[in-house]
Design goal:
Distance between the termini: 69 Å
Number of strands: 10
Helix content: 55-70%
Structural class: alpha+beta
Strand order of the largest sheet: 5-3-4-1-9-10
Strand content: 5-15%
Number of helices: 17
């Protein structure tokens, strides 16, 4: 596409408020190809390691908090000068980044030894903002803003949250106030580009913190592990979250006239209702609304992802039983569909192109549904075949962390694996899964004896393939799910009941008590 055409489209996007009025068109070509930058950065980081070691050896036994703090300030100043120098070579510029990191770490080490956590975190946040304001590159400014936001939230780690129940939640929302003030200031009076980039990084880190404070999202436990919200919601958290959701809807309605419609008001009320149940949702919705009104679409997209994560984390809230949570989400989904229905385009005469596009969309949706249902049913058929033809094997349960043994609708499982597996660290992302050799007695109780190395099996031995779960290897799964209210029934479990095929594929089908007694 020609340069004139791109500039014309850019101006048109600004006129329609799809882009900020002061947004600058990025250069269409770069005199620094990314492979060159990447290799130069790698060389700079490798050169920084012996430099840091040499500085440490120079100090020797004189290494104290004072010397570490002074060295940290020197490295910070050197890093800033390298990154600000207009005529510096690419290598010197890239060397400034590890110097900044090392300087910040040394300064933090020196301060945390003598001062309290909140004071040091706030001081380091101010240092990060000053360093970010001195940077030339917008990306570095945004990174500095993100670091400052993380340190700002950390200042509330030891505070008494009181009405709000969670100090982390309180810190995130006070950080949100800072971001909203910056956004309002930018909208009314405009902000220098440096402050805009700092604010962008600040807002993105607040969104990340909000998502983390809500716990693990649904279906993400096997990827990032399972954790729940830091604390039970305090009495003020729910209503603040709902108020922020309504404020976001009001901001959108004020700026975009087409949203002043009954259907959008109903959608806003439903989202506010969800925000009552999810104390971090309202803040994410407010960030999304403000970002949309200012045509900051990347921030809005991240806010939408954070909101989806927070909604998904509702599954792991232990204050509600699973059936009630399912009913709430299904009910809200149905009401949202009813609220959106009046906005659907009326059936009218369409052009041939529109009709063809609509037909293609319907066919694509139908094919996607068939593919999903087909994959699900194939998996079900495979599991049923394994249950019908696999050998019944019982494996003794090993002690589990008592704090995570029962989790409302599931219980943690643990098995005694051979040392070469249990102490092997995190499973690799690729490669074949290890298989264990199990010795099975006449009752079907299996003892896991060793990792299979390709040797022939002795009589009474079989293979069981391990599964990566939550950063470690286990047998099939590390949890057993059950209906709400049946925790007492499964508390006496002593064995896991598996079905195992000749090639080592296994499926957990139940739990047994003492003496293989059915539960």
């Amino acid at each position: 596409m020609k340069t004139e055409r791109i500039e014309s489209l850019w101006r048109e996007a600004q006129r329609r408020r799809l882009l900020p009025a002061d947004a600058a068109l990025p250069p269409l070509s770069s005199d620094r190809p990314w492979p060159v930058v990447l290799l130069t950065a790698l060389g700079a980081w490798l050169a920084a390691v012996p430099l840091m070691v040499g500085l440490g050896l120079m100090l020797g036994s004189n290494w104290t908090e004072v010397s570490a703090g002074a060295m940290g300030l020197v490295l910070l100043v050197a890093g800033v000068l390298m990154l600000r120098s207009a005529g510096a070579s690419l290598f010197v510029e890239q060397l400034g980044l590890p110097l900044l990191g090392a300087g910040g770490a040394l300064l933090g080490f020196a301060l945390y030894k003598d001062l309290s956590w909140p004071i040091v975190s706030l001081l380091l946040a101010c240092v990060a903002l000053v360093v970010g304001a001195l940077m030339r590159a917008r990306g570095l400014q945004a990174c500095a803003g993100a670091i400052a936001a993380a340190l700002f939230v950390a200042t509330f780690r030891e505070s008494a949250a009181g009405l709000f129940g969670s100090s982390f939640w309180l810190g995130c929302h006070l950080g949100l106030v800072v971001w909203v003030v910056l956004s309002l200031w930018e909208h009314v009076a405009g902000l220098p580009q440096r402050l805009q980039s700092l604010g962008t990084g600040w807002g993105l880190m607040i969104l990340l913190s909000l998502a983390a404070s809500s716990g693990t999202a649904l279906l993400m436990g096997s990827v990032v592990g399972v954790w729940s919200a830091e604390a039970l919601p305090g009495p003020g958290m729910a209503w603040v979250s709902a108020a922020l959701a309504l404020l976001g809807a009001a901001v959108l309605g004020t700026v975009w006239a087409p949203l002043r419609h009954f259907s959008y008001a109903a959608i806003a009320l439903l989202l506010a209702g969800l925000a009552v149940l999810m104390p971090s949702l309202g803040a994410a919705l407010l960030v999304a609304a403000v970002a949309c009104t200012q045509a900051r679409w990347r921030v809005a997209a991240v806010a939408a992802l954070a909101a989806l994560w927070i909604v998904g984390s509702f599954y792991y809230q232990l204050a509600w039983d699973l059936v009630t949570k399912a009913r709430v989400l299904a009910g809200v989904g149905l009401l949202l569909a009813l609220a959106v229905a009046p906005l659907w385009p009326r059936r009218a005469a369409r052009s041939a192109a529109d009709a063809m596009g609509a037909r293609a969309a319907r066919v694509g949706a139908a094919l996607s549904l068939v593919a999903v249902l087909g994959a699900v049913n194939v998996g079900i058929a495979q599991k049923e075949a394994l249950m019908g033809t696999g050998q019944a094997v019982f494996v003794a349960l090993a002690p589990a962390d008592p704090r995570s043994l029962m989790q409302g609708d599931f219980m943690r499982l643990n098995f005694s694996l051979p040392p070469e597996v249990s102490g092997a660290g995190s499973p690799p992302l690729t490669g074949p899964r290890p298989r264990l050799v199990a010795q099975v007695d006449v009752q079907g109780v299996a003892t896991l004896v060793r990792v299979h190395a390709g040797e022939a099996l002795a009589p009474g031995e079989l293979l069981i393939t391990l599964t990566p779960k939550n950063g470690r290897w286990t047998l099939v799964t590390d949890a057993w799910f059950f209906k709400e209210g049946e925790a007492q029934r499964w508390a006496g479990a002593r064995f896991g009941e598996f079905r195992v095929t000749a090639d080592g594929q296994a499926l957990l089908v139940g739990l047994r008590g003492e003496g293989l007694r059915p539960l």
